[in-house]
Amino acid sequence: MEIRVVRSVREKNRELAHDVRQHLRERRSVMFNFMSSPGSGKTTLIEKLVPLLQQRGYNPAIIEGDVTTAIDAERLNHLNVPISLINTEKFGGSCHLGPNVILGALETLSSDSFDVVLIENVGNLICPASYDTGSNENFVLVSVTEGEEKPLKYPVVFKRTTASLITKVDLVEPLGFDIGALRRNVLSVNPDHRIFELSSRTEAGLQSFADFLDERLKTYVAAL
Amino acid sequence: MEIRVVRSVREKNRELAHDVRQHLRERRSVMFNFMSSPGSGKTTLIEKLVPLLQQRGYNPAIIEGDVTTAIDAERLNHLNVPISLINTEKFGGSCHLGPNVILGALETLSSDSFDVVLIENVGNLICPASYDTGSNENFVLVSVTEGEEKPLKYPVVFKRTTASLITKVDLVEPLGFDIGALRRNVLSVNPDHRIFELSSRTEAGLQSFADFLDERLKTYVAAL
Fold first, then answer.
1. DSSP-derived secondary structure letter, A3
2. Does A185 score more than 50 pLDDT?
3. For B168, nearest residue in chain A (alpha carbons)
4. Do A152 and B71 touch (CB under 8 A)?
5. Mean pLDDT across A19-39
6. B95 at the A interface (CB within 8 A)?
7. Interface residue A87 vs chain B (CB under 8 A)
8. Closest to B118 (Cα-Cα) out of B215, B202, B24
9. Which residues in A93-199 belong to E strands, given as ranges?
10. Does residue B51 carry a pLDDT above 90?
């Protein structure tokens, strides 16, 4: 008689996230995962962060997650850094990046040189938050066009990230957006959250967020 | 020997969507399903549509889908129409409304009087598009703050809906948004799509969209 041990998806994912971390340690690299709704500004933020990280002495690579198309990867191509594009429709139209596809993406970057990987997760505020990609740290973007109550309605992603990046703050005035209410809602869901107010258009806040990443990177690199 | 027939989830959902349609026919009601990213303006649009449908002689009810919280349902409470709130976290934190939960929601409305049901689906541009809720017609909202390329990146929801509702068009100018590019992208994915340009703030386009719904409702009611 054959006894089959069916491992849970959760357990399998935990092992794969561990493999991702092991892979990153071997490459002496750190990985940051950026999550948000579609259109919150993930691609543009990454486009702006890459040169700021380069100025601080790092060699970034990008993992670009989309259900379909290479639009975002092509937008980032001019940065001349290694990019691995994941189209999740090839994995069943999935609405998130799991550690399995991240491991595959890291393997496509095996001949490239980098020390920090920025993941642009699939545009979705729900599913990606439930998957450990093996990243060292996770960030959520929320644009001021999305409404002050988003942290209350989508608490999981705010609980499982270390900082909220409030994007498109140049639109606060034309929108009559209450940024204080958004901040209070973020902190009511996760009192430890760091909050950055950013505008990729005016570049407000970008240097200070890059400084924050620099600090975090130094801590992680020291622990490698 | 017992033979178990394991039905696929897909098949089960097809049957449940059929049950929803049957239930609606018995109640001589029509159902419209609104899908979009978080923050595209679904709640506000529904808030504006209810009185416009009432002016046209209909009795709307609302099914309000959220992962968690009653925030949106409470925002709509002042309309004094029947509302059924679905918190999908009670069904495993699901990122969409399936026909099973819609059937449950319709049952909570069994003692209410209505002839048109508006579904506010969970804020998500990916998963809801893959589930037949049993609605007569499906609509996708895309706000001008989300970027011109959204139909190319999330084609499924544009293929499985009959009209695109471009929301927040009052922000076209401050954003420098290219609405022509968005329209072209919608039509490249679904050449039959109707496109409405709406602003819940200035009320632009709302009467003409309500007229469109009125026409559709007359067609469906005639076929009941």
1. P
2. yes
3. A145
4. yes
5. 96
6. yes
7. no
8. B24
9. 116-120, 137-143, 163-167, 194-197
10. yes
- Is A38 close to B147, i.e. CB distance below 8 A? yes
Mutation pick from A64, A85, A126, A199 vs chain B, by most beta carbons of B within 10 Å, is A126
Q: What is the ipTM of this complex?
A: 0.75
Distances (CA, A) of B152 to A146, A200, A222, B182: 21, 23, 42, 10
> Taking 60 as the threshold, does the pLDDT of residue A3 lie above it?
no
Chain A window 133-172: which residues touch B at a Cβ cutoff of 8 Å?
Answer: 143, 145-147, 149-150, 152-156, 168, 171
Using a pLDDT cut of 90, give the percent of chain B over it: 80
pLDDT value for A5: 54
Position B5 scores a pLDDT of 54
Q: What is the model's pLDDT at position B79?
A: 95
Residue of A142, A128, A131, A133 lying closest to A190 (CA atoms): A142
| Residue of A69, A87, A127, A146 for testing the chain B interface, max B β-carbons within 10 Å | A146
Query: Does A68 touch chain B if contact means CB atoms closer than 8 Å?
Result: yes
pLDDT average, residue stretch A49-67:
96
Tell which wins on pLDDT, B88 or B30. B30
Per-position DSSP letters for chain B, written without gaps between them: --------HHHHHHHHHHHHHHHHHHTT-EEEEEE-STTSSHHHHHHHHHHHHHHTT--EEEEEEESS-SHHHHHHGGG-S-EEEEEGGGGTS-SS--HHHHHHHHHHTTTS--SEEEEE--S-SSGGGGS--S-SEEEEEEETTS-TTHHHHSHHHHHT-SEEEEE-GGGHHHHT--HHHHHHHHHHH-TT-EEEE--TTT-TTHHHHHHHHHHHHHHHHHT-
CB atoms B39 and A150 under 8 Å: yes
Q: How many CA atoms lie within 13 A of B125 on its CB side?
A: 29
Amino acid identity of B192?
A: D
